[in-house]
Amino acid sequence: MLTVGRLAVENMTEGCVTDSVHPLFTFNLDSDCQDDRMESATLKVNSWVGNPGDDMSIRYGGPDLKPFTSYNLDLNVRDTLGQSAFAVAQFETGRMGTPWQAKWITDGTYRFHEKKVSPSPMVFRRVCSLKEGKVIRARLYTTALGIYDFTINGKEVSDRYFAPGFTSYASKLQYQTYDVTNLLAGGGQKEITAVVAGGWAVGSFSFTRKNRISADRQALLAELRIEFEDGTSQIIGTDKDWSVTLNGPCRMADLYDGETYDARIDLSESQMGPDWHPAAIEKPKIHPLLVADYGSPVRPHEVLKPISVSRLSSNELVYDMGQNFAGVVRLTIDGKEGQIIKVRHSEILNPDGSLNTRFLRTAKATLTYICRQGRQVYSPRFTYMGFRYVSVSGISAGRIQVEGLALYSDMPVTGDFSCSEPRLNRLQSNIVWGAKSNLMDIPTDCPQRDERMGWTGDIAVFAPTACYNFDMSRFLDKWLKDVADEQARTGGIPNTVPAQGFGFPDTMPTMAVDWWGDACVLVPWAEYQARGNIDLLERMYPVMQRYVRACRFWAGLWGIGKRRYIWHTPAVVHFGDWVAPDLPKMSQWQARSPWTATASLNNTSRTLAKVARELGKDREAQEYDLLADKVADAYISVFTDGRGHLKKEFQTAYVLPLYLHMFKGEERKEAAARLAELVKENGYRIGTGFPGTPYILFALADNGQVDAAYRMLLNDTCPSWLYEVKMGATTIWERWDGLDESGQCPIGDDGTDLMISYNHYASGAVGDFLYRRVLGIEMIDPGYRTFRFKPIIHSSLNWAKGHVQTPYGTISASWKVEDSLLAVRVHVPIGTRCRLELQGGQTQDLCPGDHQVNQTINLGTRQEEDKN
């Protein structure tokens, strides 16, 4: 039977509202028939009919779409076996440039001058009478400078958090569209209320705690458009008829410090009086393009229940949620009028069982809740925390229930991995939870301390793993728009995007910084490989070109001859071998930048050549390949003895040129052998920082050192991935030595200001190896139109299985070894081909359908992979 697995508009299966004049339609298929193929497909919107050919995506190409309009999308597919499948979807257009019948409003009396804190939340209100007649359609279009939450007659308009989202505010500001038809049913008077907190635009942000970066105070822009059954309409926009107060129940809201909430204040019962005054028209100091929401909204997902609760001598209750995550608590309280409850959050505990908040730095991560009488439910709306443990004071355990709500951006799960080793399965879970915790509208570095910034280096190395586990298309597309907007004229990329007031290095903020700035090349390439969207490459190609040109400029400032291709600008402006565990101080990690930066220049140049070739720019591809070749030659000539041995040895210095194919012939073989020796001498423990960690297992396994790769992967002594698992980690740590064997943190004065996060996804980039080598699923052609199934079988594992959802459908694959018999199973989706490569060079091309192949193997012989 032929079925449509997914029909999406702009990568959303439902609820899409777009300002695009050419929205993208995508679909995939499934069939239980062998060698089934798509013969034809048509997508219809009104009178326009599109034919995607043998692809499974097409952009709308019909008559101009109208603003504020709902459209139906009809898909009709036939396969080569004569079967048909149908699917329908809906989408809406947004404003599409229509002028707002609304004004920016604020509290004109508010003067906010305090430093390193967030402003008081503003509450806006409009009581309006609807026209007579049945409401058949009502949409609320809104945005804010700050973060907002809307209610109509006390009912939440949406369950999303932190709208309008975090963007490069000076360039683009998203507006959201909400269907509020049901909330306006019955006509009569309606009370529209919006709370606007400081968020990223006005509130304190980054570890420098700057505030008022994009606006001096909060502002709201909203337009309610109502259509009635008789054909009439009504528009209610923000203007001077709205009221505002600073005396709402939410008394304080800060992304780092938390929230203070006084439940005794009930605005729905308030009348116009001293606390309310007319809103003022605001003239924002920035003038961004207002665009329909194009990102992945942050919503609550998993609900976590405490696995234990203990009482300290201070009568403080400590709840263990059993999982480190990013989100908020939900409290169900039997309270007394005026009773004050304090809730604090942390990732780890002190030896006495109390919360360790030392590593939060200046972030207070505290909720203060003042009760009204009786049963009440409270969960903050304008902050979030990274935590596993919650302490509660001011109430007894019998009068409160604590739950955790995991918050992260909406991203469909696309991948799964498991195997016969339970510790690797725990590692996979830690990788996924680390990603969920840091994919919070932007790709952050950590969710707990006074940072939570869009560090580019983390997502640069993690993007391939993220794209296996999730459909990152909307999330990354949004963030990469900000990367492009914030690129300096010199080509440099800020180390955090959106930068939002943060610059590093402060003296030269427009410099190119290896591996961090590389995100503008590596992230869109990873997404293109996973989803096959050529539009993303076309849009980012000029950004990549400017960046690589900047890298080449900085590398060539010093040196003559081949040293013109050795990137050795002052180490203080680089991160180098960041958090490498074999060195104790930050300055020593940075001192390795000539190796990491030079390898980076090779990698970005080579990747850019691949991008150029995909775009049909062959001449430019040759130029970038030539640059990559010259950089590789310089690295080998300057840093090695010419026979595969580095003059100064450390793991990352071998890993990068091996993974990037900078070594050739016998030199490559010797370098891999020497890396394996270093790894063995180090007890098969990790010695790499951010740039080397994602690639070290590939550098070993792909160069004849499979056993060393598996021994490193399965090592559980510090530093290693499974040491964290052994110590009870439920996410990925920022530092390999985050806890010692006694469960205490040994981090001292190493120049990083107590930098230790227990929820930091960068080192979880090993997930790429789990999918591509342990399981064996690997893309050959973008979007998995052609893919390889080539597991590396090792005696330490008996089986592995998993799936990857591609634009063409779901690849399911598994292998199992029993009594020297290898059994391989793979499901090949319609529209794709699979190249099965097994031990001993056995290969098969598999057509769409289900396949099983058996092979006798000798587990005593370690498989050596192709060394090319």
UniProtKB/TrEMBL annotation:
Residues 414-774 form the Alpha-L-rhamnosidase six-hairpin glycosidase domain. Keywords: Hydrolase. One of its GO terms (biological process) is carbohydrate metabolic process. It is an enzyme of class 3 (hydrolase). InterPro entries: 6-hairpin_glycosidase_sf, 6hp_glycosidase-like_sf, Alpha_rhamnosid, Bac_rhamnosid6H, Bac_rhamnosid_C, Bac_rhamnosid_N, Rhamnosid_concanavalin. Its EC number is 3.2.1.40. Pfam families: Bac_rhamnosid, Bac_rhamnosid6H, Bac_rhamnosid_C, Bac_rhamnosid_N. Residues 311-398 form the Alpha-L-rhamnosidase concanavalin-like domain. Residues 776-844 form the Alpha-L-rhamnosidase C-terminal domain. GO terms for molecular function: alpha-L-rhamnosidase activity. This is alpha-L-rhamnosidase. PANTHER family: ALPHA-RHAMNOSIDASE (EUROFUNG) (PTHR33307), ALPHA-RHAMNOSIDASE (EUROFUNG)-RELATED (PTHR33307:SF6). Residues 134-269 form the Bacterial alpha-L-rhamnosidase N-terminal domain. It catalyses: Hydrolysis of terminal non-reducing alpha-L-rhamnose residues in alpha-L-rhamnosides.
